[in-house]
Design brief:
- The chain is an all-alpha fold.
- Helix content is 76%, strand content 0%.
- The chain has 6 helices and no strands.
- α1 packs antiparallel against α5, α2 packs antiparallel against α3 and α3 runs antiparallel to α5.
- The longest helix is centred in the last third of the chain and has 72 residues.
- The protein is rod-shaped and about 115 Å long.
- The chain starts with 7 loop residues before the first helix and ends in an 8-residue tail after the last helix.
């Protein structure tokens, strides 16, 4: 399956979230913030509740879902890479073992056994070829899309950080307005009150715009994960099914070649034990 199987509309949601801030700093991962940034001590906290508690709860809920999503995506990406690396290592090791047997003097003394080892080596090379094809498919249709999805989070995190910074400015200026409102209404106080309100207005509007945009975009971003990843996971399943179907054929053919004598594993174990006992009876290996 090609990368085109992923939903273009879903990726548009991701790009829209990435555009929340044009100057997002790269590398600001969500892991750097257990929650969106908080000021550790109160500076100019207003008496007035400027952000409704329901709005703040909605924001924390939506952002918390995205934090969990990023952690899950990072873990899945890491685990899938480790899995494919282990598959490659296993396959290469199996090929090396069969190749070493071909050149081992223990195997070339018996023509029938050498034919069995040759059949094993052929099967291992076929397995390795199919395994590499499977790994390439998983890399293209699952691992790379996971990485692309993860790359959107730094921009989102920076947008959340800037929203919080604007909120702190909003609270500070609101507190300043309240301070002048509580004073006796003299001429100088009224002038300062007017100036404080004028200073507050663009900051309040900026925060409300940032807050509204994030509350609208975060659920879209979160919901886009299904359309984006479902084709990738379907491709992952198909790659595994195709691989193990081929393995069944390969090892089925190999079984037919090595089981011509009709000897069971239990019989072989008894024969090996009898031969080992004969070796133990030799004087050169006898216990003193």
């Amino acid at each position: 399956m090609s990368e085109n199987m992923t939903s273009s509309s879903a990726f548009e949601h991701l790009e829209l979230c990435a555009a929340l801030t044009a100057s997002a700093e790269q590398g600001q991962g969500i892991g750097a913030m257990a929650k969106y940034p908080r000021i550790p001590f109160k500076i100019g906290q207003p008496k007035k509740q400027i952000v409704p508690k329901t709005v703040e709860r909605d924001f924390e809920r939506e952002y918390g879902k995205l934090q969990q999503l990023e952690d899950q995506i990072k873990k899945l990406h890491k685990d899938m890479k480790k899995s494919t690396e282990a598959d490659v290592a296993m396959s290469k090791s199996a090929v090396k073992i069969s190749s070493d047997l071909l050149t081992n003097p223990l195997c070339d003394q018996d023509q029938m056994f050498m034919e069995t080892v040759t059949a094993l080596d052929t099967a291992m090379h076929r397995m390795d070829a199919f395994n590499q094809e499977k790994v390439n498919q998983i890399q293209k249709t699952a691992i790379e899309p996971l990485k692309k999805f993860s790359n959107v989070f730094p921009s989102l995190n920076m947008a959340v950080k800037r929203r919080e910074q604007t909120l702190q400015d909003y609270k500070r200026l609101q507190s300043k307005v309240e301070k002048y409102e509580e004073k006796e209404k003299s001429g100088p106080v009224l002038v300062k009150l007017h100036q404080a309100k004028e200073e507050l207005r663009p900051v309040r509007e900026d925060f409300e715009a940032k807050n509204k945009q994030l509350l609208e975009e975060m659920p879209k971003f979160y919901n886009s994960r299904i359309d984006y990843f479902q084709p990738s996971f379907e491709a992952l399943i198909r790659a595994q099914v195709m691989y193990y179907t081929e393995m069944s054929k390969i090892f089925g053919d190999l079984t037919g070649q090595i089981d011509q004598q009709g000897i069971t594993d239990e019989q072989r174990e008894k024969e090996n034990e009898a031969k080992l006992n004969d070796l133990r009876a030799l004087s050169i290996v006898a216990d003193d």
